[in-house]
Amino acid sequence: MANEDLLLRQMPHSLEGEQAVLGSMLIDPDCVKNVMDRLRPGDFYLRQNREIFETILTMFNYSRPIDGITVFGEMEKAGLTDDNTRSYLAQLMEITPTSANVMEYAAIVQDKALLRSVAQAAGEITALVQEGMGEAGEILEASEQKIYAIRRGRSAQEMVSLGQVLPDVLDRLSEMSEHENHLPGLSTGLSAIDNKITGLNKSDLILLAARPGMGKTSLALNVALNVAKGGGTVAVFSLEMSREQLAMRLLSSEALVENNRLRTGLLRETDWEKIAGAATVLNRLDVRIDDNPLLSVADMNAKCRRLDGLSLVVVDYLQLMTSAGGNNRSENRQQVVSDMSRMLKIMAKELNVPVICLSQLSRANEKRDDKRPMLSDLRESGAIEQDADIVLFLYRDDYYNEDSEKHNIAECIVAKNRHGETGKVELRWMPEYTQFSTLDKRYDDED
Q1: Handedness of CA 416, 419, 420, 424 (dihedral sign)
Q2: Of 97, 96, 74, 98, which is closest to residue 86 (Cα–Cα)?
Q3: pTM of the predicted protein model
Q4: Angle CA(435)–CA(437)–CA(442) in degrees, nearest 5?
Q5: Which of 66, 67, 317, 419 could disulfide-link to 358, CB 3.0 to 4.6 Å?
């Protein structure tokens, strides 16, 4: 008896729900556009229902009239009909009480499709465990990716046609044309950088590299603060500084109170007023800080997946990260860093948000007369350059030359830019507030 129950057991689905959705679309074509935003062909469990849905969508895309007769005609042309198709289409219209509840019917179909996806993922995860392919950490990461793919409403390996992608691109173009700054990505808060890299774009890996003391952490925090002020959630993973130190820097930057006075507690009465105002602003922002120094990319990815409304991820910094196994001693360090940079790019694509990763530079630039960083100075891995969509270098001439005319002026060098031009922009550096701001003057490589 138990075996018979197992054979008869079906994956979750609702025949009535699927039929009601199709019947509503047949009797009221106006509701098709609403259903399109909610359901995909794969959400229908029965093959015949799935074929009818696909036919209606195709007809809608070509602005063809939709009813029982025209849908049958299209299915007949495609060779999708049998002796019962005409009567089944008529039955769908007869059993549907009203199209007014079509979104309720769609919700039922979508819910059953979600349960089927969970069941399928659970089976695949069980198979991974039973086959013993890979270590426990690798299986856990693969399992999380499968579940996360379901949460995002897509298959982990699903391919889509160009026709499915174009509507999103056109919508994005329309949105950008109506926006004042015409940036396709998030603003960094520094217009000179925005103009060079067109903002922080979704799924981009942005590498911010410099020698110690140049202010790369400060610049990353300035950008994070600006994105958070725009209403987004920002995740900051600090492998070097504690959460209290980061909060102190953010407070100094927002309050415009010297960082040294905050660290020593030698505050004036006017400072407390600024600090109170800045704390009120910062309390309203959704900035999440994790200062665990032993985090791997897989750990960061898993934590970010649980955040709603995530807009930006900041990692400070690459060379301090560990591999997924947490043990780098037996591996070539250059290969480890290469693997991590690749995983960061994959994380940016999976989360569909920009990821800013800070990186140290080798000492090679300090041996040259012109100490401005170059791509070849990227420490430990040439793969970092390959994986990054944008590479930014920070350089301050007064760091090396006390008599420099460019006192407290930093150069942000765009050494690689997959979306546009490279070059340099000048930023004002205010070390007492650990803050950068834009200068009016900009110049190119030829100047």
Answers
A1: negative
A2: 74
A3: 0.63
A4: 140
A5: 317
φ, ψ of residue 430 in degrees (nearest 5):
-115, 90
The residue behind tokens 């460019």 is 406
Task: Give the closest residue to 410 by CA, choosing from 424, 422, 391.
Answer: 424
Domains in the chain (CATH in brackets) are 1-155 (1.10.860.10), 185-443 (3.40.50.300)
What pLDDT shows up at residue 3?
A: 46
Tokens of 321: 């990260």
Alpha-carbon distance of 392 to 386, in angstroms, equals 14
Smallest CA-to-CA distance from 56 within 70, 37, 38 is with 70
User: DSSP of 237-274, one letter per residue?
Assistant: EESSS-HHHHHHHHHHHHHT--HHHHHHT---HHHHHH
What confidence score (pLDDT) does residue 272 get? 85
Catalytic residue among 144, 240, 385, 426: 240
Looking up tokens 């219209």 gives 93
Residues in the chain: 447
DSSP annotation of 361 reads B
* Separation of alpha carbons 23 and 350, rounded Å: 36
Angle between helices 68-77 and 47-61 (to 10 degrees): 100
Which residues, including other chains, have CB under 8 Å from residue 78's CB and lie 6 or more apart? 55
Does the annotation count 331 as an active-site position? no
Tokens 């803050």 belong to residue? 435
Q: Are 296 and 322 in contact (CB under 8 A)?
A: yes
How far, in Å, CA of 50 to CA of 48, rounded?
5
Rounded Cα–Cα distance for residues 388 and 277 (Å): 37
Are residues 306 and 235 in contact, defined by beta-carbon separation less than 8 angstroms? no
The larger pLDDT score, comparing residue 383 to residue 358, is at 358
Helix (H, G, I), strand (E, B) or coil at 424: strand
- Give the C-alpha separation, 418 to 390, whole Å: 6
Q: What is the pLDDT of residues 78-126, one digit of tens each?
A: 898 898 999 999 999 999 888 888 999 999 998 898 888 888 888 888 8
Phi-psi region of 294 (alpha: psi -120 to 50; beta: other; left: phi over 0): alpha
Burial class (CB in 10 A: 0-12, 13-18, 19+), 252: buried
Peptide bond into 317 cis (omega under 30): yes
Q: Which two tokens stand for residue 46?
A: 């029965």
Q: Give the full edge-to-edge strand order of the sheet including 310-316.
A: 287-290, 233-238, 310-316, 355-360, 205-210, 390-396, 409-417, 423-430, 435-443
Statement: residue 49 has pLDDT above 90: yes
Q: What is the mean pLDDT of residues 404-419?
A: 84
* Contact status, residue 321 vs residue 296, Cβ threshold 8 Å: yes
